[in-house]
Amino acid sequence: MIVIGGGLAGLAAGVALAEAGWRVRLFEQRPFLGGRATSYVLPDGEHVDNCQHVTFGCCTNLEDFYRRVGAADKIKFFDGLLLLDPQGRRGEMSPGMFPAPFHMTSSFLTFSPLALKDKLCIARAFSDILFSGGHPRDLDEPGGISMLEWLRRRKQTPAAIGRFWRTVLVSALSEELGKRTGHVDLYLTSSRIEKYMKETKNLNANVDFYSASTYYSLGIPIDLFTPIFAVSRMSGWTAHVLEQYRNNRLIRPRADYIGTAVGQPWVPIEKR
Ligand SMILES: Cc1cc2nc3c(=O)[nH]c(=O)nc-3n(C[C@H](O)[C@H](O)[C@H](O)COP(=O)(O)OP(=O)(O)OC[C@H]3O[C@@H](n4cnc5c(N)ncnc54)[C@H](O)[C@@H]3O)c2cc1C
């Protein structure tokens, strides 16, 4: 049996098939398993867990997978979710008498950090997600939109954004709401390739090496990568050709970066 993709779904399918007696071959295009459920090590050595912070009792397939690989006891379930806002207001979300997906309704209605108008706009945003089958139409806009923009379009109040959405989403996506989620995996793959090429061929990455992952994370279509590369160089190339024709000699410029090895500190534009 062949499984394509070594994310949670592929791994869960592979393990279940193997336990059912199948011979499984799993193909993963990236050099590591886990897919979006990943972690990475920062240059200072800190290990960052980038995914799967939250699971619910209804995620039965995930629980089944954790049980099969012997990790079920690593998950800690809580009956309620306690939220504390910066002003010290506490609110608890816990299941009530209604069946799922409405089991949190009563605790949501009595949730003290939010006023009624905040709750109503959150409920409206949730109903938009539910009625669009989990795929609101703005997601298909070219380049996508940030989560913060999505919330503003749904007229979410500052309290709803600050006390509810930011708490829930920043913890799950490891991102501020104003930013689109970057592709940490592409950056990690690029840096591994850079290291490998340096070690095995003594080749330095050129100035454009990280452009692809940056452009991709910015939502720029792949077909535009080369035109962007070219357009930013047109004036330089033109000057080069003019100089070359003037002397009728082929110019082969050599340039080695002799600046600081750790790069320059980044200064926000308004502080420059
Ligand atoms: C930052 C972040 C936080 C999250 N937090 C939570 C959370 O708290 N709780 C929760 O329940 N969910 C969370 N999620 C969502 C959850 O991680 C994903 O839903 C889940 O990991 C998806 O698993 P998957 O196997 O379906 O897909 P993926 O993880 O996307 O795996 C697909 C795999 O298939 C591989 N692949 C694709 N095409 C090919 C091919 N042609 N050949 C070979 N390999 C291929 C890909 O490289 C990838 O490894 C989070 C996601 C992110 C990014």
Ligands: flavin-adenine dinucleotide
Could you tell me how far the N terminus lies from the C terminus, measured between alpha carbons in angstroms?
A: 58 Å
Biggest sheet, open or closed, and with what strands and sense?
2 strands, parallel
Fraction in helix: 40-55%
- Label the overall shape: extended
Low-confidence stretches: none
Order of strands, main sheet, comes to 1-2
The overall strand count is 6
Structural class: mainly alpha
Order of helices and strands: EHEEEHEEHHHHHHHH
**Beta-strand content:** 5-15%
Number of helices, where a helix is a run of at least 4 consecutive DSSP H or I residues: 10
C-alpha Rg, in Å? 25 Å
Mean pLDDT: 83
Describe the structure.
Helices cover 41% and strands 7% of the residues. Among the domains are: 73 residues, no CATH class; 88 residues, no CATH class. The radius of gyration is 25 Å and the shape is extended. The strands form three sheets. It has a two-stranded parallel ribbon. A two-stranded antiparallel sheet has the order 3-4. A two-stranded antiparallel ribbon has the order 5-6. Helix 1 packs across helix 2. The termini are far apart. The mean pLDDT is 83. The longest helix has 18 residues. The chain is mainly α and 272 residues long. Flavin-adenine dinucleotide (FAD) binds next to helix 1 and helix 6.
